[in-house]
Automatic annotation (TrEMBL):
The protein, known as: Protein kinase domain-containing protein
SMART domains noted in UniProt: S_TKc (SM00220)
MF (Gene Ontology): ATP binding; protein kinase activity
PANTHER family in UniProt: SERINE-THREONINE PROTEIN KINASE (PTHR23257), SERINE_THREONINE-PROTEIN KINASE WNK4 (PTHR23257:SF958)
Record SUPFAM superfamilies: Protein kinase-like (PK-like)
Domain of life: Bacteria
Domain Protein kinase: 12-321
Ranges in coiled-coil conformation: none
Amino acid sequence: MMVFTASQQEIEIEPMPFAKGGEGAVHKILSPGTLQSFCVKLYYDKYRTAERRQKIEYMVGNPPPGLNSRVYMVCWPSDVVFDTDNPTEKKFLGFLMPAAWQDNTLLYGLCLPTSPASKPWLSTKFDRKTSLGQESRLKLIVNIASAVHSIHASKHYVFVDMKPQNILLTADAKIAIVDLDSIQIADKKKVLFGAKVLTPEYMPPEASAIQLEKDCVPEHWDQFSLAVVFYQVLFGLHPYMASFKGGYADIATPREAIKHGLFVHGSKRHHIHALPPPHQAFEGLDAKLKSLFKRAFDIGFRHPKLRPSAAEWGETIHGLLVPMGKRRNSESFLAPHTQALLEHRIRNIQSILKHGVDSL
């Protein structure tokens, strides 16, 4: 199957996609060889709109800096794709983007109580029952925070639909963020292109007061979603997952609990009827991390602007990781030269957030 870029470059793609989503499918590139590290997303017919084309063209022309490092990548659109190279007849199909790291899997597998058997390394390198596995999950969070920070730093983009299903990881903790075409684009709080996709269990309490079509979604929306993802990575369940009593006894979903500010370790925890056992590990968490989660979910319920940013998550966890590395002389998730690099950069968090935490 042949498609063409805006500059009339011919691309041959595999007819069968290797991944499918709600709005389109992703195809591997067969030729030219110079694009082997890229892939093509083709929208389904009803999503090939003029507005969608304009949004992709804007993203292609305005990429934020720092989209890629040795340990994270943001699969940002790099060119628009059409059905022909004839400028008067071409029809919008989708876009060209960097392909994610090889041998990846969805981060969602790490957000479950038990990792899926399809990727054995999920349950070995990221075992919550071992100190090395716990440390590996923290390093993974730093890399995710680094990637998110690279987008937020531009002050033009908000993910809106941040969730583990849109993040891929590898055995050596490299991560890739995908499905960026659903992002909100704004300039000076004026929405240029709104977000179209939402996932209820990752939406903040204030979401019901925001109209996506006209209101500018603030960065602290993403900060809530990000904290949910991080909690799931560390503990294997949603931070609002519990059964409640009294006036909250009828709450049956995380989304309903979010609306009422029922973070299981927050100021309303006395309303909990039964707490799933995985939540108990929160008590063993470092006090600094506990504070970040409480700001994101409990304090942030009334004061969203006080939620920790991606940069603060990265800075805090990096500050915890370096002493861990010094104490461990056995096999580490970091190569020795990388550990030395991290120790050297401990006082320069902006550099860490730019490059992430290097892996094996």
